[in-house]
Write a structure and sequence with these properties.
Blueprint lengths: L9 E4 L2 H11 L2 E6 L5 E6 L2 E7 L11 E6 L2 H16 L9 E6 L7 E5 L5 E6 L12 H16 L2 H14 L5 H17 L3 H13 L4 H6 L1 H11 L5
Parallel strand pairs: 1-4, 5-8
Antiparallel strand pairs: 2-3, 3-4, 6-7, 7-8
Helix pairs in contact: 1-2, 3-4, 3-5, 4-5, 5-6, 5-8, 6-8
Length: 236
C-alpha cells in the first residue's frame, strides 16, 4: 500500500531566499516558489525533496527541525556539498549557522555527516542500509572520540564535546599515536567551533607532530586536511 510513497519534510526558515540560495549551493534546484498566501518553496536534489517555509520572527537558534537522509554514498555527497559551500562562502562553514560537519563515526549510531541550514535545521546524512550497532567494541580514547562526535556532531553540544576530548586525552596518555592524532585533530575543529583559535592551532600542531606509520598517516590524511582548512593553516 505504501511501496511507492515518499515523505517530504517541511522546514522553517527566517529568510526564504537565503535558504533557497544555501540549498542551491549544495546542488539542489528550486522547483517551486510562492510568496502568497505564505512564502514557501521546494528544493530538490535527485530523490531528495525539501519544502521550506518562511516564518515571521523565527529564530534559527531555536529550531528543532531535523531530517534523516540515507544515500548510497555519503562521502561523495559530502564532498559535493563542501565544494558548493566553499564557492558560496569563500570557506567551509564549520561553526554557527549555517555549517557542515565532516563524516564521522558517532558512538551508538551510524557513520555520517550533518548539515545545519540557515533555518537551524539539521540534515543528518548516513549510508543507505546501515543500521545502528547493537554492540560497540571500541574502548579507551577511540571510544571517547566517538562519544565526543555524538555530542558535537549529532547533538550540537560543542562545549561538552570539547571537554570530553580534553579529559580523554588526559586519561589515556598512552593511547596509540593514531588515536591521539585523531582526537587532537577533532579537538582542533571543536576549538574553532567554540571560538578558541589559539587552542585550535595548538591542538592541530600537536597532532601533526605525532610520528605515525605511513599507513596510519594515510588513514587520517583527509581528517588532517580538513582540520588544516578549518583552523586556517595552509596545506603542506
Amino acid at each position: 500500500m505504501v511501496a511507492s510513497a515518499i515523505t517530504v519534510p517541511i522546514l522553517p526558515c527566517a529568510d526564504l531566499d537565503d535558504s533557497i540560495a544555501f540549498y542551491e549551493a549544495l546542488g539542489f534546484k528550486r522547483t517551486y516558489r510562492q510568496q502568497r498566501p505564505n512564502p514557501s518553496a521546494v528544493v530538490e536534489l535527485g530523490e531528495i525533496g525539501i519544502h521550506l517555509f518562511e516564518l515571521d520572527d523565527f529564530d534559527p537558534e531555536t529550531s528543532y527541525g531535523s531530517v534523516i537522509i540515507a544515500v548510497s554514498d555519503p562521502d561523495t555527497l559530502y564532498e559535493a556539498f563542501a565544494t558548493g559551500l566553499r564557492e558560496r562562502f569563500g570557506k567551509l562553514p564549520s561553526s554557527g549557522i549555517p555549517r557542515i560537519l565532516r563524516p564521522r563515526k558517532r558512538h551508538g549510531t551510524v557513520r555520517g555527516f550533518s548539515v545545519v541550514d540557515p533555518g537551524g535545521n539539521w540534515l543528518r546524512v548516513s549510508k543507505l542500509g546501515d543500521a545502528e550497532e547493537s554492540r560497540d567494541t571500541t574502548t579507551g580514547l577511540a571510544r571517547v572520540i566517538e562519544n565526543a562526535a555524538r555530542l558535537g556532531d549529532a547533538k550540537g553540544d560543542d562545549g561538552e564535546a570539547t571537554r570530553l576530548l580534553e579529559n580523554g586525552l588526559e586519561r589515556f596518555p598512552d593511547a596509540p599515536g593514531i588515536e591521539r592524532a585523531r582526537a587532537l585533530l577533532y579537538l582542533a575543529e571543536l576549538y574553532v567551533r567554540v571560538g578558541d583559535g589559539p587552542a585550535a592551532l595548538e591542538s592541530l600542531t600537536t597532532a601533526l607532530a605525532i610520528e605515525l606509520s605511513a599507513e596510519d598517516s594515510e588513514s587520517i590524511k583527509a581528517e588532517a586536511a580538513h582540520a588544516r582548512e578549518i583552523v586556517g593553516l595552509k596545506p603542506r
